[in-house]
Amino acid sequence: MNSVRVNDKPLNFTYTHSVAENRTVLDGTFMLDSNHKVSVNYRFQPRDFKVKYSFGCGCETTVEPSYDFGDNSWDLAVSRRLYDASVVMGSCRSSTKVLGWILEPGCCWWKL
To answer: In this model, does residue 108 exceed pLDDT 60?
Structure first.
């Protein structure tokens, strides 16, 4: 991973080239502040470009809308950390019209 500072904010990027898999990928993340992040992913074969914005409102909730230029589709993910360190996540993918949710327990309450 490489990193540069832009207006005193970190811009991290990774370049991956795999000859065996015939794959070249460029990933980048720009941290606007501790609650706001923009991520991009570009694959050269096939030309696929994704942009994701992550907004953490500081109250244990994170909202992540993203756009995939290859599929011409929007995705939305929302996660919330609960009081016992569990996390509940929901997502919507417009390309597949699938809604989903996951509950990840954060403690051992099921073993009591």
So the answer is: no
Q: How far apart are CA 6 and CA 54, in angstroms?
A: 19
86 conformational bin, left if phi > 0, alpha if psi -120 to 50, beta if neither: beta
Bridge partners, residue 104, by sequence: 87
pLDDT, one tens digit per residue, over 23-82 is: 889 999 999 988 999 999 999 877 789 999 999 987 789 999 999 998 899 999 999 988
Q: Which residues, in sequence order, are CB contacts of 77 under 8 Å at separation 6+?
A: 63, 64, 66, 89, 90, 91, 92
